[in-house]
Each structure stands twice: as structure tokens, then as C-alpha cells.
Design goal:
Two copies of one chain form a homodimer. With 233 residues, chain A is α+β, with helices and mostly antiparallel strands. Chain A has helices at 4-12, 95-104, 106-132, 135-150, 166-173, 177-190, 206-212, 216-223, and strands spanning 17-22, 26-29, 36-42, 45-50, 56-62, 67-69, 78-83, 87-94, 152-154, 157-161, 194-197, 200-203. In chain A, α5 crosses α6 (177-190). The two termini of chain A are 12 Å apart. Chain A binds a DNA duplex (30 and 30 nucleotides) through α6.
Chain lengths: 233, 233
DNA sequence: CGTAGATTTGAGTTCTGTCAAATTTTGTGG
DNA sequence: CCACAAAATTTGACAGAACTCAAATCTACG
């Protein structure tokens, strides 16, 4: 069964640039390049901003199905989309081409617009996380996000990859890499998450994680697979 | 001369609810109400989220010309749009009605979509401000934002209203009201801004403010009146 | 003029950042 | 498969920025 968006995307074939990526690969987003739409096909990506004085910051995580419009990126010095997963694929097309498609197919326009609205909501909730939660609560929120978005159910809990290094986590959660390391040590010893391998964790109970952070329910609604925000087209 | 968006908005007359507001007035945004589009006509508004434990937080400031789609608001407990200016006007229409209009007039669709993308960029830059700047730098960023968005040039500098209370500022910048008060005292004594009256300031040099915060140039590009992001329709 | 609310300021505490050293992990070549 | 170097992570000790609590002061408004 083909969904409307599949059909619409076929019409775009000629305009889409398919970009397979490996782990540290980066796509630059500059204002000069012109307005661009990115469609995440597989893998996790980081939207990272770099400042004048060499400081970095991760604004947003992108998951499969997400859309990202470069005009929605603030005019910071340098912004890039960095591949966090070992392998992934991202599609790129000019916003003007997307607009032409939208004119012809309102359903695709709606789907994309709704996805972009979801990005906005994710930014807002991430704002709330950074602004209002303690370090431990922020890390718990990130674990929930990754477990719900990319995890797989197993008899022992939800298993998921952690594609972010300590530095990445710190840049995403507005913490220090040393502090992140300390917090993860505490989470390990309290049994909230258990490392299975390098960059792979298992979480016995997402409920326990949710109890660790005051906006747990909102994070669940935002990232849970069958969420009302994941619009069927 | 009528702009395209003016003409398009005329077609919407029958669907728009015009809401004049006074200072502490609040418009509730709930997921049950359905997807809604808000158009700021005049005044400054706060998008405020309330958490379970009674804590508040201001996610975003809205200025005249801004659009806000309720689907772009995260599923937090309670979210509301609060009037910050003494008087203002905000228009409300259902997203479904907006979509019908978009189908008929691609220009309005583009204008609205671009405005919503600008909101996303504003959220992202606010993220960067909260995540990476010190308290003093954050307040400087807020002053720049208000001065550039709502200020008027005078021989002595830019004059602007401060529609936010100390508590509001604290909720917006992820600080404590006491800390905000201390920072404002320092800014007064260093002459970066000078109070003219209750809730009214004059800033002698926006450049001096920009020097106080590492992402000053980005804030300028984001909020300056003739910015490339303010799209002419 | 008096009261309620907002703001300012001080003193002490806590969380997180900074710096440095130890330890683990990863990648490379023999 | 092992040894080695480079990078990432962990952990400790200390410092600093911001929070909490409390009291004093100011402002708006009836």
C-alpha cells in the first residue's frame, strides 16, 4: 500500500539529492546556499551550531521521518547537520522545488507543514527541558527521547543506541561533558539504564525514567511512536 | 497599495475572530480545542507553559506580524498566550480554515509558512541563548530583542517598552527573579540601558549591548526591522 | 493614606563548571 | 593476536555563578 506522501515523493525524484552518510559526516547549512528542505530517511542527525569563539551547541536531534527547512535555522555563524548514526540517509531538495510540489499536491504540503510544526514543538519542549530541569532530569529526558524514538522492545526492557558522545550530550543538554559523565555514572548505579555495549543501552522501565523528570508525560506524548503528532497521510 | 496578504486576509474575514486584549489577559491553548492559527496584530504576547508542580515558563515572545500555530506548541500541561502589552489585538482562526485559504492562494500559504519557519528559528536561537550564555548575557539579549523589535529611534538612543515583569523575564531567560533584578541593577549602573519610566527604557547603543553577548550579531539579524527574514509579500 | 503586590538587596547554600590526573576504549601496525 | 598511541571517558578537588530564603524598600491603586 502506498501512502499519499510516497506517491508525492515519487514526483519529486528528479529534484531530490539522496545523500547516504557515515558517522562524522557533516552537511553545511549556510544562508548563501538558499532555502533547502532536508528529509531524514534513516539514522539520527544532529543540528549543530558553532559560535564565533569556537563553542558548539546542538539545537535539535533529527529522526527518520523528520523534515528540516533551512529557513527555520537561526542566522548563527555556522550551522551544520551532522550524522550521528554509523550509517543513514538524508534527502535534500530546494525549498522552491518543494513549493512547486506543494502547489500541485495539497496533501504533501500539509504533511510537510505538519512535520515542520512538530519540529517547532520539539524545539519548544527542548527549551523547557534546558530551562527548567536539573542535569539529572535533562539526561533522563534525553534517554526517554532516544528510547521512545529509536528503541526496540525486548523482554528485559527497551534497547536503544546512544549515537551521541559525552560531548554531544553536553552540547545538547547545555551541560558539561564531565558533568554528563558523572550523571551517567549515577544513572548506571541506580539501574535506570544499563549499558549493553559501547553506545548501546537498555532501559528496564521508561516509567521510572519519566518519574525522574517533571515533564516526563510531555516527552512521552512528543516522542512515543503512536503519538497523535505523527500524522498519517 | 494593497499587499497580497492584505487581499488574502480579506477573504478570511468570515473565519477570523478578532480579539482585543488588555494586560493580563490570557488565551488558553489546549489540544482539545483543535489546531488553531493566531495572528498577532499589535502588542507583545507571551507563550507561557505551566507545569504540574506550579512552575511556569515562557517559551516565546510574539510580536506584531507573527503567526503562531497551536500544533507547533508542545504537549505540556497547560499552555497559554498572555498579553504583555497594555493593549493589543490578536486574530484567531481554525487551521482548517487557513488550509482552505492556502489551497486557493499559494502566496498566503507561502507567507504564513515562512512566518512559522521564522518562529522556529526564533525558538532555536532562544535555545542557544539559554543554553550557552550567562545571566548578564541573556538579559542583554532580551534587551536587544525588545529594542530592535519594538523600539523607536530617538536622538538619545532607542526607546522601548519593557512589557515583562521581573518574574516574566526570569521565566523567559531561565533565571531567578532575584537574579534578574540584580543583573538589571548592574546594567543600569553600567549605563547599558537607562530607565525612563516604569516599564520604559532607553538604550544609548545597541552595539554596546551586542558586545555584551556572544551571539549579538545573530540576534541583530533575527530581530532587526529590515531583516531578510521579514518577507515582503 | 494605607495596603497589597512587585522589586531590591543581603547572606548562605547548592549545583555545575573548570582543571587536572587516572583510566578505559579505539584504531593501527607489527 | 598483541603492543602501542591517540582519543574518549571517568573521577576528584576546588571555584564560581545562580538559587533560596528573608527582610527591606518601592509602587500602584483604591
Amino acid at each position: 500500500m502506498k501512502s499519499a506522501s510516497d506517491i508525492a515523493l515519487q514526483q519529486l525524484e528528479s529534484h531530490i539529492v539522496r545523500i547516504p552518510t557515515r558517522k562524522p559526516q557533516k552537511l553545511a547549512i549556510s544562508t548563501e546556499t538558499g532555502d533547502t528542505l532536508f528529509l531524514i530517511q534513516s539514522g539520527v542527525y544532529l543540528v549543530r551550531a558553532k559560535w564565533c569563539d569556537g563553542r558548539h551547541q546542538i539545537l535539535l536531534l533529527l529522526y527518520p521521518g523528520d523534515c528540516m527547512r533551512s529557513a527555520a535555522i537561526p542566522p548563527l555563524e555556522r550551522v551544520e547537520i551532522a550524522a550521528a548514526s554509523e550509517a543513514g540517509e538524508i534527502w535534500r531538495l530546494r525549498w522552491s522545488a518543494a513549493l512547486r510540489l506543494f502547489d500541485g499536491d495539497p496533501n504533501v504540503a500539509r504533511h510537510t507543514t505538519d512535520r515542520l510544526a512538530e519540529q517547532t514543538a520539539r524545539l519548544a519542549i527542548h527549551n523547557a527541558i534546558i530551562a527548567g530541569l536539573t542535569g539529572d532530569e535533562r539526561v533522563a529526558a534525553l534517554m526517554m527521547e532516544l528510547a521512545l524514538r529509536t528503541g526496540k522492545e525486548t523482554p528485559r526492557g527497551i534497547e536503544f543506541d546512544m549515537p551521541l558522545s559525552r560531548t554531544d550530550i553536553a552540547e545538547y543538554l547545555a551541560l558539561n561533558a564531565d558533568t554528563v559523565s558523572r550523571i551517567l555514572s549515577r544513572m548506571r548505579s541506580s539501574g535506570l539504564v544499563t549499558p549493553l555495549a559501547r553506545c548501546r543501552y537498555i532501559c528496564g522501565s521508561v516509567e521510572a525514567l519519566a518519574r525522574e523528570c517533571p515533564i516526563g508525560p510531555a516527552i512521552r506524548r512528543m516522542h512515543e511512536p503512536a503519538s497523535s503528532l505523527t500524522l498519517a497521510v
